[in-house]
Design brief:
alpha/beta, globular, 7-stranded mixed beta sheet, two-stranded antiparallel ribbon, 27% helix, Rossmann fold, 9 strands, binds S-adenosyl-L-homocysteine, 223 residues
Length: 223
């Protein structure tokens, strides 16, 4: 796949004006980090969804991406990103659940390196091709069960989990750097998962709950 400048820019429902309106809505709904808002105005979300759904790419909705998975709502992606950056610049981030690749693309413009793992081969490969076509060189991907993290690349200053486990997998906590932050939807009930934020301190971990969210389930193993 080759993404031309015109593909990236978009027209009509995928144009810069449509992206700008999405950014205004994010701001209206409480997203305030200027760098995060700026990046949402630049990353072409329409290229991360099916051709058939491109006209809906800048609505604040989750959309199907195949294999029973979804690309998260822009607001949720923005909020999770903002939480990761709360204490200032972040260098290395692990994402569990590459999916469409949109969250990783957003992060790649805000941190030094993104390591993103996906358990479904088709999604992993499609995202990898897209990162190449769009020249996101600091995004590294792997087809694996993210419950084990990515030990050889850790520790991470930030970890973002984009599928909901019953509880946060222990290897992810182990791979969090001191001062690092993990954001993960926790729980198995639809719409009743709690966006959990865990910070590693010198003496252990602190935890807070942000809001109720809806994510696809976190599953073990590869497919
Ligand atoms: N961040 C993605 C969201 C995709 S939905 C985006 O921006 O589009 C969540 C993804 O997590 C799905 O693709 C699902 O297959 C994946 N997933 C679920 N459990 C996983 C696991 N244990 N390891 C890796 N990926 C997982």
């Amino acid at each position: 796949m080759i993404a031309t400048a015109a593909d990236i820019r978009g027209i009509g429902f995928t144009s810069q004006r449509t992206r700008d309106r999405m950014v205004e809505r994010l701001e209206h709904n409480g997203i305030s980090h200027p760098d995060v808002l700026d990046v949402f105005g630049r990353v072409p979300r329409h290229l991360f969804v099916d051709d058939m759904l491109q006209t809906r790419a800048y609505e604040d909705v989750s959309l199907p991406i195949g294999e029973g998975q979804t690309i998260s709502r822009p607001w949720v992606v923005a909020r999770m990103t903002e939480i990761l950056l709360e204490d200032g610049p972040v260098s290395r981030v692990l994402e569990v659940g590459t999916g469409s690749g949109y969250q990783a693309a957003i992060l790649s413009e805000l941190v030094d390196s993104v390591f993103s793992v996906e358990r479904i081969r088709m999604l992993h490969e499609r995202a990898r091709r897209l990162f190449k076509a769009l020249d996101y060189r600091n995004v590294h991907t792997r087809h694996s069960d993210g419950g084990w993290g990515w030990g050889s690349q850790g520790p991470f200053d930030g970890i973002v989990v984009t599928a909901a486990p019953e509880r946060v997998p222990a290897p992810l906590l182990d791979q969090l750097a001191i001062g690092g932050r993990l954001v993960c939807p926790v729980g198995t009930r639809r719409g009743k998962q709690s966006l959990t934020v865990i910070t590693r301190t010198r003496s252990g971990f602190t935890e807070r709950n942000e809001s109720d969210v809806t994510f696809v389930p976190f599953l073990s193993g590869k497919s």
